[in-house]
Amino acid sequence: MKNIAILTSGGDAPGMNTAIRAVAKYAMSKGITVYGIKRGYAGMLNDEIFELTPKDLGGIIDRGGTFLLTARLPEFKNPEVRAEAVKNLKKREIEGLVVIGGDGSFHGADLLYKEHGIKVIGIPGTIDNDIAGTDYTIGFDTTLNIILDAISKIRDTATSHERTYLIEVMGRNAGDLALYSCLAGGGDGLLIPEKEFSIDDLAMQINKRREQGKLHDVILVAEGVGSAFEIAEKLKGKVKSEMRVTVLGHIQRGGTPSGLDRIIATKMGAHSVELLEEGKSGLMIGIESNKLVTYPISHAWESKKEIDIKDYELALTLGH
């Protein structure tokens, strides 16, 4: 393996830069030339490919986002577009490709491998933690801690004014961010897309806590459930509490990656190079029970990551 490339694709996640650094530095230590591809698959198509140097990697380990930039390219679903993009890899004799992103990004990598023989390794980088085959995705822990900081601040105001706050967090169709921020942040309620909920039951819980003397409520709402504003509107007239909504939005994506995200990103980045050197391809890297594992890259979308029902029930029990 003489030449490899790295790209980041889909939504940015804290720790992507750490992963890029690990892939590149580990590969360089083995005499491999490393290329960076700007703007994901769009940059591959538009030939935004450049050779990385140690200077490019300095000072990025603790930077959020991705210095390679990221973009979406729906046209990459077209085989002709993929074939055109691959020409830009082959003219540089790039044999291996490390793709850092979510399942959509992995789809593109899988097709490059199957159609054009490009050796690909996927590293799961998404704050949603929604990829099967790994306990944690890069960016999840950092985002979780951002949410926990927000909960602590909002709780101060919620208590002072005796209010119920609905905090809407990211996660697309996965409830992990809402679940674990509720569990770690002492949330009083939890709404996630994996579990049905009743507005009447939620209202009853809020009213019961008021009768017991509790002054406030902080309820976590995963964006996949629906708008927190719409849920608050449905609760009006059913609860004996003033309602407020906070949508954390894109503040959850940025910031310095946590120690855990940096460690995971570094281990996965180095391991991706090892796999390519061994001639392996079409794989994604995960971490399970604190051990690195690999699965066929298609595992990311062919299997569904399930919510931990015990953790969900514990969060509800402690929130009542």
TrEMBL record:
Catalytic-site annotation from UniProt: 128
Which domain of life, per UniProt?
A: Bacteria
Keyword rRNA-binding applies: no
Where Mg(2+) binds, per the record, is at: 103
**InterPro entries named among the record's database cross-references:** ATP_PFK, ATP_PFK_prok-type, PFKA_ATP_prok, Phosphofructokinase_CS, Phosphofructokinase_dom, PKF_sf
Pfam name, any one: PFK
Q: Name the residues that bind ATP.
A: 11, 72-73, 102-105
How its function is modulated: the record gives: Allosterically activated by ADP and other diphosphonucleosides, and allosterically inhibited by phosphoenolpyruvate.
Q: Where is the Phosphofructokinase domain?
A: 3-276
Which residues hold substrate?
A: 126-128, 163, 170-172, 223, 244, 250-253
Q: Which keywords does this Swiss-Prot/TrEMBL entry list?
A: Allosteric enzyme, ATP-binding, Cytoplasm, Glycolysis, Kinase, Magnesium, Metal-binding, Nucleotide-binding, Transferase
Its annotated pathway reads: Carbohydrate degradation; glycolysis; D-glyceraldehyde 3-phosphate and glycerone phosphate from D-glucose: step 3/4
**Cofactors:** Mg(2+)
What cellular component GO annotations does this protein have? Answer: 6-phosphofructokinase complex
Report the EC number(s), separated by commas if there are several. 2.7.1.11
State the protein's purpose: Catalyzes the phosphorylation of D-fructose 6-phosphate to fructose 1,6-bisphosphate by ATP, the first committing step of glycolysis.
- Name of this protein: ATP-dependent 6-phosphofructokinase
Q: Which organism is it from?
A: Hypnocyclicus thermotrophus
Q: What is the lineage of its organism?
A: Bacteria, Fusobacteriati, Fusobacteriota, Fusobacteriia, Fusobacteriales
